Amino acid sequence: VPLGSLRRRVATVGDLDIAVASDSPEKVIEHFINYPEIKNVESKGERMSTVILTNEVQVDVLVSDADSFGSLLQHFTGSKQHNIKLRELALDFGMSLSQYGIKQKNKLKKFDSEEKFYGQLGLAWIPPELREGKEEINLAARNSLPNLITVQDIKGDLHIHTTFSDGGNTLNEMVEAAVELGYEYIGISDHAPSVTNRGMTEVIRLMDDKREEIDRINEKHNKIKVFYGYEVNILKDNSLAMPDELLEKLDYVIASVHTSFDMPRDEVTQRVISALENPFVTILGHPSGRTINIREPMDLDWNEIFKVALKNKKILEINSQPTRLDLPDHLVYDAMKLGLKFVISSDSHSINDLMLIKYGIDVARRGWCGGKNVLNTLSYSEIRKVLLTK
Ligand SMILES: [Zn+2]
Ligand SMILES: [Zn+2]
Fold first, then answer.
1. Where in this chain does the record put each Polymerase/histidinol phosphatase N-terminal domain (predicted)?
2. Whose atoms come closest to the Cα of 348: which ligand?
């Protein structure tokens, strides 16, 4: 079982820590240090070892007896803030916590599962994604933690590129791959063709052809339905890269910033607000514009953005691309508290990308979202109403 930030599904992790329950720790350690991708074994003890992989990632393994495995998992999953608050609670009961168990009146009680460990403190088991020292301990005491979304709740994916723009697979290939995943629907959201470059007549012709192709799929397919959308750039001058009279022809529109991220707070906030006030925009795509470890998020006034999005009934995207994970989890939490709704999207550029949606699920869970906060958990007929009444 992974430990620490990996188990809590934090957007970025450093070292990897893994816990193993076994009554023959020496065999586990021996097996671990013989893993082929290891560059160097840094340390090797009876129950612990540290290695550096060929990709420079450090991995620690910890072996524990099965009867205290729950305590070990709890201790090393963290976060630090969560464990500090948990320790304060334990102190009120005259207990002290460690990786070995819970001590009361000098007697150590061991726990083979986390459920029992938390249970000893009068708490429901807390999903690792929530262990950040917010209000999870209070809610666990009242058994009223949120029922977090899972990947099985997802009924469709609304951010998909095809060979009509920069995708690597055709519309039909994407449709068939989505059928394989058991989706009820997908939304095709290629980058919108440029009217400036191609001219109005040409763009209308392209759109009509594509609409025809999508209609054909929808007629013949009894397993899946396709929505026709575009991902439209929010330009520097606050306008959208496609005129309203063309946006009107679509089932839905994702508006995204792809250029000039580095604008002053007021200007960039107004730019996104202008998109949120456009009646044809349905979803705000990768709202912060960050690329993890490469590009900082835009300097947006989130209070203002969330207020305008709520007023105009716009949906916020949780983009699942591992380099984006955008909206970031702490902002998902804030927006969720305000009552905003999300879609979790893969932003697929090939059939293999479709499975990336699980990383967006991680973000949503870290933002305390249940199925009811995420609109692509709705059935086809329900999501159709949401998208087409826009
Ligand atoms: Zn995009
Ligand atoms: Zn995209």
1. 156-236
2. 2
Q: In whole angstroms, what separates CA 280 from the centre of its chain?
A: 25
When pLDDT is cut at 50, 70 and 90, the band that residue 106 belongs to is very high
CA of 89 to the centre of ligand 1 (A): 45
pLDDT at residue 390 in the model = 58
Judge whether 4-141 and 151-388 match in fold. Answer: no
- Determine the distance separating the centroid of ligand 1 and the alpha carbon of 145, expressed in angstroms: 33
Percent of the chain's residues with pLDDT above 70: 100
Find the ligand nearest to 256 CA.
1
Q: How confident is the model at residue 298 (pLDDT cuts 50, 70, 90)?
A: very high
pLDDT, mean of residues 121-138: 98
pLDDT digits (tens, 9 = 90+) for 203-250: 999 999 999 999 999 999 999 999 999 999 999 999 999 999 999 999
Q: How far is the CA of 339 from the centre of ligand 2 (A)?
A: 25
Question: Measured in Å, how far apart are the chain's first and last C-alpha atoms?
Answer: 45
CA gyration radius, the chain: 24
Return the CATH fold of 4-141: Beta Polymerase; domain 2 (3.30.460)
Q: Domain locations in the chain?
A: 4-141, 151-388
- 234 Cα: distance to centroid of ligand 1 (angstroms): 10
- For residue range 57-85, list pLDDT tens digits in order: 999 999 999 999 999 999 999 999 999 99
Q: How many CB atoms lie within 10 A of CB 179?
A: 14
Q: Which ligand neighbours the alpha carbon of 353 most closely?
A: 2
